[in-house]
Amino acid sequence: MREVLKDLIDAVEAGHTVGLGTVVRTFRSAPRPAGASMMVDADGRAVGSVSGGCVEGALYELATGVIESGTPKLQRYGITDNDAFEVGLTCGGIIDVFVEAVSLKTFPELPGVGADVDADVPVALVSVIEHPNPAWLGRHLVVRPDGFEGSLGSDRANHAVSDDVMGLLAAGRNTTLMYGPDGERRGDGMRVFVASFAPQPRMLVFGAIDFAAAVAKQGSFLGYRVTVCDARAVFATKARFPVADEVVVEWPHRYLQGQIDAELIDPRTVICVLTHDPKFDVPLLEVALRHEVAYVGAMGSRKTHDDRMDRLREAGLSAAELDKLSSPIGLDLGSRTPEETAVSIAAEIISLRWGGKGGRLSHMDVRIHHVPLADADHEGAERPNLQLEPAEE
């Protein structure tokens, strides 16, 4: 939803009613993740995408109808013999899209969500997408670390859902949650979709070398907030790393420990150690490997790696802590240039995030789109009884 949020807010603040379609569940090789959105404004302009082109035409018509009727609709799009090349997903995936009419009247809290996102303040948007009482459909709750505003339909539901969403917000996850009609945790009937807008995940690149410039570019491209850090002021300059969000002159281990103490490092953070100098990287890795982050990779030859591991063992790191280290850094792509090496590092980060193996898809008989392990059970929960709804009525 982030990609259409500004256009959405601009339209509703101008007094318009907008049709918004959001992917709330995916199955198999769906082309876009949960949270991807497409909006249709009052002038008929479409912004965003839910499938990369497969079903946007059908969704446009549905969103236009929802604007006129004001009645939300949960629509499933999937491949069938009749609609595979018309409005189905030719990739073989299945997506559930919740389509609603959005205006300041239906969602007065929306501009505040946009302000939080612009200010990098964590905020989550909860929408009722299924409920036995149609009056609850499309109701919203805005959840922040210090509380919530809006209403799903009852105080009980508001408190139950907001409590559960806090954890999703901290991790920056989008997903659906099931409750009883009044927010009962042991029940079904009400399903809500949670879109979390957490601050950008961070990439910390240590070592102001030419490889770091290439890695910083890859990190920025992937959506990370990139910091380059080196103790040598002559090398750690903004002119050498224009893509980085910040360039810091400090001993790497001191900088990282300070960021941890300030609670500015979270489980989504990735750390790339490119110094391959023991006086820099060993103290740094002692700190990094003892903290919960998504990725720690270190550059160096096999000989450098072996020496580094011996020094880390002498420093008292456990086998479990050492197992978290990706060294030598990156996937085996045959990389030689800094740019190619940066691609291999980015590829390793992506593969660890989604559970990919790094092999050639043309030589493998596996799913193309992976899901995080935390979402795997949810994604497959209803597969045995899937019934495809027609794409159009």
TrEMBL record:
<dbReference type="InterPro" id="IPR052698">
    <property type="entry name" value="MoCofactor_Util/Proc"/>
</dbReference>
<feature type="domain" description="XdhC- CoxI">
    <location>
        <begin position="12"/>
        <end position="78"/>
    </location>
</feature>
<dbReference type="InterPro" id="IPR027051">
    <property type="entry name" value="XdhC_Rossmann_dom"/>
</dbReference>
<feature type="domain" description="XdhC Rossmann">
    <location>
        <begin position="203"/>
        <end position="349"/>
    </location>
</feature>
<dbReference type="Pfam" id="PF13478">
    <property type="entry name" value="XdhC_C"/>
</dbReference>
<feature type="domain" description="XdhC- CoxI">
    <location>
        <begin position="118"/>
        <end position="180"/>
    </location>
</feature>
<dbReference type="Pfam" id="PF02625">
    <property type="entry name" value="XdhC_CoxI"/>
</dbReference>
<dbReference type="InterPro" id="IPR003777">
    <property type="entry name" value="XdhC_CoxI"/>
</dbReference>
<protein>
    <submittedName>
        <fullName>XshC-Cox1 family protein</fullName>
    </submittedName>
</protein>
